[in-house]
Fold this sequence. Notes:
Distance between the termini of chain A: 67 Å
Oligomer: heterodimer
Shape of chain A: globular
CATH topology of the largest domain in chain A: Aldehyde Oxidoreductase, domain 4
Largest interface: A-B, 62 and 60 residues
Shape of chain B: globular
Structural class of chain B: alpha+beta
Number of strands of chain B: 5
Amino acid sequence: MDRRDFLKMSFAASGGLVVSFSLPPIEALAQSAGKPALVPNELDSWIAVLPDGRVNAFFGKMDMGQGLDVAVAQIVAEELDVGFDKVSVLMGDTASSCNQGGASGSTGTSNGARLLRKAAAEARRVLVERAADRLGAPAAELRVEDGTVVSPRGKTTYAELVGGRYFHHQVQWNQQTGNPMDISVPAKPKPPAEYKVVGKPLARRDVAWKLYGTGEYVTDVRVPGMVHARVIRPPRAACSVRGVDESSIKGIRGARVVREKDFVAVVAPREWDAVRAAQQLKIDWHYDAKAFPPMDALHEHIRAAKAVKREEPVKQGDVEAALKASGVRVIEAEYEWPFQSHASMGPACALADVKADRCTVWTGSQKPHYTRDGVAKLLDMPPEKVRAVWVPGPGSYGRNDAGDAALDAAFLSRAVAKPVRVQGMRADGTAWDPKAPAAVHRARAALDASGKVLAYDFLAKGFSRQHIATNESNPADSLLGQALGLTPKGNQIYGTPGESYGFENKRLAWETIAPLVVAGCSPLRTSHLRDPVGPDIHFASEQFIDELAHAAGEDPVAFRLRYLTNPRHAAVVKAAAEKARWSSLGKGKGIAFADRNGTAVAVVAEVEVDRASGRIWAKRFTVAHDCGLVINPLTLRQTIEGNVVQGLSRTLFEEVRFAPDAVASVDWASYPILEMPDAPEAIEIVLIDRPEVAPSGAGEPTIRVIPAAVANAFFSATGVRLRRAPLNPERVKAALAKA
Amino acid sequence: MATYRFTVDGKRVSVDAQPEMPLLYALRDDLGLRNPHFGCGLAQCGACTVHVNGEAMRSCVLPMSAVAGKTVTTIAGLGTPEKPHPLQAAYVAEGVPQCGYCINGWVMTAAAVLKKNPKASDAELRDALAGLKCRCGTHVAIMRAIKRAQSQLA
C-alpha cells in the first residue's frame, strides 16, 4: 500500500477508531500533487484536513481503553481551533502513522500527544498564512472559529485551503524513533490559560460499540481464504520436540501440522477443528526436569543468586558508616514479590496474510510498529513491505502474549501460503505470557535516639524486567524465535523507589540475576507488566517507610511529610490524608506515596480483616493524583480507578505457581484475580491540576502505591506486617497465627 | 456432524457441527457474530456469556447438542444503540469498559440477575457477579452502572 492509498483509507475511516479495510476512491486526492513519504518531518504524516473540513490526526501510540485518543483529539482540536467532534484520531496502523513507540511507559500524553500538539499548532499557523494570502489580509488580523478563518475582509475555511489535499510542509524532526521521537515547529502552541477543549471531561469514543457488539476486536477480523491455527506451546519448560505423530489428527478434516525445530502448530479450515487437532496431536517432548527451583525456595534462590548487574542510581553521603555509627538503632526488613502474569482477558490473537513480496498482519500488540519490524525480520522482507494493523485486543498492560501471536501468524501464513488466524487457548495467555519478575527487596535504616532517620539503604534484587525485550521487533525475543533456536538478547535492568525523602545518607540500588532458563522456551521469561517493577519495589519501600514511622513513634502521614522534599510530593500526601479524613479514621488505615517520572500519587486504603477466613477487604481507597496539566479529568479518573483495582488484585491474589519443570498457573482457577465480592466499595479521587506543568503519565503511577497502602492498612488493623505478596487468605492466617 | 437448528437474536439459524462443539464457535465462526468472546474456554471468566432461553450461560462450554431448538440471545440482541437495554445505556453513560473484552459477560449476567431481582441489593449483586473477570479493573464503574440501570428499571 502506498502513501496515497493509506491517506484514502484514513479519509474513509474518519468516523472512528476502527480503520476500514476497504478503500473507496476519494476524487479530491487524485488531484493532489505528489504524495509525501510517511516520515516524521512531513506535516502530512501527522495531520490531514478532509474535503468537508473534518480533521484526521495520525497517532503513533495506542489507546487501550483509557481514553488517550480522546486526549489527543482534545489537544489537536484545541491547537487547530476546530470542534472536538471534527477530529478523528487514527492510531496503530503502520501504513498511516510514524513509530512513536506504541503504548509504553505511560508516555502517551507526555511524549506522544506533545508531538501532535506541535503538529496541530503548525498546521494552524500554515493555514492562517495561506488564508492571509487568499484574503489579502495580514495574518495577525485573522482569527479561526471552528475551522473557518475570519478576517475583516472576508473568510475562508480549512476545507477550502487544504481539504482533501496535502500540506507539503516540512517540520523539523529530531531523528529519533519510538518514545523520544519529537518535532519542532515555528508555531507556538497556545498557553494553557487559553484552553477551551483541553481540561474538559469529554467521554470516550470506544464505549458504545463495546456495549452493542458493533465494533471489531482483533479476534473478529476475518479475511477471505483464511485458515485457523493453534500453536502448541510446550507442556513444560525448556522443551524440545523429539517427534510429532501426524497420524494422530488424521481424522480431522483438513487439519495439518506445521513444524519447524521445536515449534509445532496445527492449521485447519474450521476453528473448532484446529482446537481439536491441537488437543489430539501427539508430540514427543523432551524437557528439563529441573528448570526451576522448588516454588517455596524461589526467594531463597533470588537471595543466593549472583548479581549479573548492579547499579546505584542514588548515592548520597556514607550509608554504611551511618548504619555502623554508635548509638543508632538499625531497622531492617526484606520483602518478597512473586512472578505475576499479564493474564489478559483473552489469550492473544493475530491474523497474517503473507504474499510473495509483502505481508499484512492484524495484531493486538500495543506496539504495532515494532511488530512490523519483527515480522519483516522473520520473513526477511524490507519493513516497508510489511503493514501491521492494530485492532483492539483483549486488554494490554505491557508485553503480553500479543507479540508472540503476531509472529506465529506470519510464520504460519508463509508456511501454508494462506492468510492464517491464530488464537491462543487460556493457558497460552496465563502460562506462556512474559511474566513480571519475582524479587526480594531489602531495606535498612539507622535512627537516632530522637527517631530521626540518619541513613537509608534500599536494594531491589530480582530477575531482570527485560529478560525478553519490551517489544517483538526481534524474533529472538519471541516464543517462536526461541523454539527455532534463537536466544533472547534481553537487557539487565531493574529499578529503585521513586520518592524525594530527604534522608542525609541514602543509597538506592538494584541488582538483577540470571534467568532460570537461558536457552529454549521459558514460561517464566520476564518482561514488562503495567508499571514494570513499580508495584513490587514500592510494596517494599513504602511499607518500610511505615515501619520507620512506627519505630520513630510517629504518624505515617506526618512522618512522610517531615522528610518529603518536593512540594508536589508533599501536596498529594496532604490531599489524600485530608480527603480520607486520615486523623479521624480508626484502625485499618494505610497510606503510601510514590512518584513515577514526574507524576505524584498518594493513596489511603481502608481495610477490614476477617481473622477467621484470612480475608482482607480493602473497602475504600482515596487517591490524590498530580500528573501536571489535566487534559481530561473524566478519562483520568477512570484510568486511576482501573489502576487501583488491578493493583489490588495483584496485591491480594496474584502469584504464578510453578513446579520444577513447568508453570502450574494455567487458567483463572490456578491464577485467581480479584472478583466483584472483593472489589472496593468506593474509590475517591482528588485530581491536582497544574496547568503550568507539562502533563506526565497516568496509565501506571497509581498501581505502584496500592500494594503498600493495603499492607500498611493491614498492619494498622492487626499490628502484623505482611512482607510477602500476595496477601492471600492463606498467608494472612499464617501471619496472624504466628503473631 | 449433525445439523442444529435454533434461534439467535430473533433469527432462525441452522449450523452443521460436531455435537460436542461449544456454541461459541458456532456463533463466532458459522454465524459471523462478533460477540460473545473467547476468554478461557473453561467457563471461568464470562466473556462468552449469552442467554439461552433467558438464562445466562457460558457458550464456551455449552455443546451444540444442548442448543437445538433453544432461543439464544447475545449482547447485540439484548439491545441496540436505537433501543438499548437499560444496562447497555447505563454502561455507556458511565463509560464503563476499558478494553471491553469482558463486558459482554457482565452485561448479560447482570441482565439475567435484574430480570429475576430488579431491586437486588449491593451485596446480592456483588455475590451474583462473582465468577466474572475484568482484567482492566472496572468493577467499581460496573457497580455504578448497574445501580444507574436499576434506577431506570424501578
